[in-house]
Amino acid sequence: MFNQISTQASKLINLTKKQHKSSKTKVIAITSGKGGVGKSTFTANLSYIFSTLNKKVLVIDADIGLANMQILFDLKPQYTINDYLNNNIALENILLQTKYKNISLVAGKSGHNYLLENSQNQFSRVINEIKDTEKFDYIFIDTGAGLSSHVQEFLDVSDEIVAVTTTDPSALTDVYALIKMLSLSKKRLFMVFNHTKTYKIGETITQSLINLASKNKLNKNFMVKYLGNIIVDLNIATTGRLRKLYTKELAYSDSTLSIQAICKNLIKEIS
Predict the structure, then answer these.
(1) What are the residues whose beta carbons fall under 8 Å from the beta carbon of 102, sequence distance 6 or more?
(2) DSSP 3-state of 239
(3) How many Å apart are CA 166 and CA 172, to the nearest integer?
(4) pLDDT band at residue 68, thresholds of 50, 70 and 90?
(5) Is 42 in contact with 164 (CB distance < 8 Å)?
(6) What domains can be seen in the chain, in order of their start residue?
(7) How far is the C-alpha of 4 from the C-alpha of 50, rounded, in Å?
(8) Residue 92 carries which DSSP code?
(9) pTM of the prediction?
C-alpha cells in the first residue's frame, strides 16, 4: 500500500513540475563597459543586417533609465517593458513591429528608475517568456553601460555576449573589468571595436587584453574573440539624427561593409 501511494505521489509531482523548454531563439547581449561608444547604434544596425538574412529579430532596449532605441527605429511606443513588468500589460502589446521587415522592438522607458519597483530576476523572466513564444530567431539585448545589477542580470540570461568598445583608454579599462567579471561564469566574449581606422588596430588591442588576462591568471578556459571593427564614418551620426539605419541608407559604404563582416563572423561562431 505504501509503495502504491508513493508511486502515485511521484507521478503527481512529475506532472506538476514545469519542464524546461529548449528554444530555437538565441539571446545575444550587446554591452560595453563605458557609455558613449556607439553600442545602441551598433545593435540597431546589426539587427538590420540579420533581418536581411531572413532572420526574425527582436531588439530589447535594456539600457535602464536611458532608453533610446525607439528613436533609432523612429517609433513612439505606447507600451514599454516597464508596463509589462508593473502594469500588467500583455506581452504581445510590448512586441512592437518596426518599419523594417523581420525586426521587432521592446522599448525601454527613459528616465525611469526600475530599481524602485523590480526585484531580482524580473528582467531575465521577460527574456525567458519571450523565448517561449518561439517567434524570433535572435533576441538582441542592448544593455546599459557599466556593470550594474541590471546589466549583470541580462548578461547572465544571454547565450552570447558582444562587447562594443573603442580605443579610448577609459573604455578599454572598463571593458577589461567586464572581461574579469564574465570570466567567472561565461565561456567567452566577443569583441567589436567601433570608430577604429583599421581591422588590425582592434585585433592588436584584443590580443593585448587576452595577454593581460593571462598575466593576471583569469580563467584560462575563458575566451575573448575579436569579430572586427567599424571604421570612423561621419555619415553614421548623420543617419542616426535622421532616425534612419546607416546599413540600409548607405548599403555600400565601408561602415556597412564592416558591420556585414562582423555579422558574418558572429554567425560563423555561434552556428
Answers:
(1) 50, 51, 54, 55, 56, 57
(2) helix
(3) 7
(4) confident
(5) yes
(6) 30-61+121-270 (3.40.50.300)
(7) 55
(8) G
(9) 0.87
